[in-house]
């Protein structure tokens, strides 16, 4: 085949055409479910541990930013009229659906749900105050607590309430007897983010910090000689100086029975506003024991989002730092490279590590691609859409689900779709 591709371009074209025809006749994925609700967004979908259900959050879409500028005033008048009748009509609702699309359980109002190992209880961050028509900011999310909804008894239990900020992203730990979640505060003006991790035992209600909400004192301006022009400018405006820098949680995932965190620790410099300009990034296990995993070095604040990780099965991580690389939690070492380098940040690996789904291109319009990691072969390419908003895999790597905004579903007819695919 290499001789044909290198020496006979026409033969290569014919061979490629044949491959595409064969792929169309025997697609590597099968579409199992397309699920949506009128006017609605879909966020944070997750498969149940057995892969037979999906838990997610849905919310009536309220246009914002540039999209809102293209909408007629009459459209917003109708939304405001609905809000006057029901102040929570566009608040997020948690739903548990089966693979036929049937809603089997529902809880109001909340986000970022997680399903217990027995598929009977949903943990979520309760949206305490009405958020219809508002942005998700530190102020509008303030006081959100962690709740559990029992799908059999229809009872709701509050398991953790914050003193300040809000709690988010709850996950059941492997035994189902405790939940870990993030502690969130305002980290940059109105914007918020996780600054610590906590765990609660469901039977006793006992709470323990897994990663404390530590702060680092700001460096006084007069303590730094020979200031840079930027530092001198900021130091000339003392009302904008911060007193402390919250540590940032850049990632939080389960790896078997371990809770793995990507923490960004600030490197204070004189006159910083809200955030330091540089951070030391470190991966660590914070449960069942607090153990360093890997130091990733120092990064500028604008480059923090260029580093991330995903938990795979068998104690492995995929870590993005320049490109995606496999890492062993057991040996705390990099694993051999077994396929082409993948530099696309928006890649979502199957727990087995055999495949990943990636969003291409970065600009609108969008499509997503299923790629075989061993050789970079594109196994499936989706139709074009106006947006790709989320990807999740089942634990056994046999299914993945994608949230998209299909063509023609924007504007007054806005309607996101959750599509579930199974691998042959």
Helix content: 10-25%
In the sheet with the most strands, the strands line up as 1-30-29-28
Distance from N terminus to C terminus (CA atoms, Å) equals 25 Å
Classification by helices and strands: mainly beta
Largest sheet descriptor: 4 strands, antiparallel
CATH third-tier fold name of the domain at 37-213: Methylamine Dehydrogenase, Chain H
CATH class group of the domain at 37-213: Mainly Beta
Average predicted local confidence, pLDDT: 89
| Radius of gyration over C-alpha positions, nearest whole angstrom | 23 Å
What is the strand tally? 30
Outline type: globular
Q: How would you characterize the overall build of this protein?
A:
The two termini are 25 Å apart. With 424 residues, the protein is mainly beta. Among the domains are: 37-213, 7 Propeller (Methylamine Dehydrogenase, Chain H), CATH 2.130.10.120; 217-307 and 328-337, no CATH class. It has helices spanning 2-7, 9-25, 65-69, 73-85, 138-141, 229-235; strands at residues 29-36, 40-47, 53-60, 93-98, 103-108, 110-115, 121-126, 146-150, 156-160, 166-172, 178-188, 191-201, 207-211, 215-217, 244-246, 248-255, 258-267, 278-287, 291-300, 307-311, 316-321, 323-328, 333-334, 347-349, 355-360, 367-372, 377-381, 385-393, 399-406, 417-423. 12% of the residues lie in helices and 47% in strands. Strand 26 (367-372) and strand 27 (377-381) form a beta hairpin. The longest helix is centred in the first third of the chain and has 17 residues, at 9-25. A four-stranded antiparallel β-sheet has the order 1-30-29-28, with no helix packed on it. A four-stranded antiparallel β-sheet has the order 2-3-4-5, with no helix packed on it. The protein contains six helices and 30 strands.
């Amino acid at each position: 085949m290499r001789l044909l591709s290198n020496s006979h371009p026409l033969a290569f074209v014919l061979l490629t055409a044949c491959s595409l025809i064969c792929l169309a006749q025997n697609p590597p994925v099968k579409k199992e479910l397309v699920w949506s609700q009128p006017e609605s967004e879909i966020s944070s979908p997750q498969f149940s541990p057995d892969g037979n259900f999906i838990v997610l959050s849905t919310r009536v879409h309220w246009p914002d930013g540039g999209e809102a500028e293209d909408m007629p005033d009459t459209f917003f008048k109708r939304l405001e009229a609905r809000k006057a009748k029901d102040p929570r009509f566009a608040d997020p609702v948690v739903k548990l659906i089966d693979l036929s699309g049937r809603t089997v359980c529902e809880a109001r109002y909340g986000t970022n749900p997680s399903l217990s190992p027995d598929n009977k209880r949903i943990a979520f961050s309760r949206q305490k105050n009405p958020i219809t028509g508002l942005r998700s900011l530190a102020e509008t999310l303030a006081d959100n607590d962690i709740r559990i909804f029992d799908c059999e008894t229809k009872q709701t239990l509050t398991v953790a309430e914050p003193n300040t900020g809000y709690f988010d992203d709850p996950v059941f730990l492997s035994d189902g007897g405790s939940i870990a979640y993030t502690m969130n505060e305002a980290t940059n003006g109105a914007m918020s983010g996780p600054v610590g991790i906590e765990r609660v035992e469901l039977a006793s209600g006992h709470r323990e910090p897994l990663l404390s909400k530590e702060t680092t004192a700001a460096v006084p301006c007069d303590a730094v000689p020979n200031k840079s022009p930027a530092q001198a400018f900021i130091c000339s405006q003392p009302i904008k100086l911060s007193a402390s820098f919250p540590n940032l949680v850049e990632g939080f995932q389960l790896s078997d029975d371990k809770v793995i965190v990507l923490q960004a620790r600030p490197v204070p410099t004189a006159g910083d506003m809200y955030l330091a300009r540089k951070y030391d990034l470190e991966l660590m296990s914070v449960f069942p024991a607090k153990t360093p995993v890997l130091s990733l070095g120092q990064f500028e604040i604008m480059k923090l989002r260029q580093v991330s990780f995903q938990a795979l099965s068998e104690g492995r991580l995929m870590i993005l730092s320049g490109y995606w690389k496999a890492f062993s939690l057991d040996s705390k070492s990099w694993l051999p490279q077994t396929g082409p380098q993948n530099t696309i940040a928006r890649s979502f690996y199957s727990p087995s590590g055999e495949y990943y789904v990636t969003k291409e291109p970065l600009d609108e319009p969008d499509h997503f691609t299923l790629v075989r990691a061993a050789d970079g072969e594109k196994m499936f390419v989706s139709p074009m859409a106006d947006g790709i908003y989320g990807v999740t895999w089942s634990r056994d790597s046999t299914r993945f689900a994608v949230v998209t905004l299909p063509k023609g579903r924007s504007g007054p007819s806005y309607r996101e779709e959750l599509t579930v695919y199974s691998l042959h």
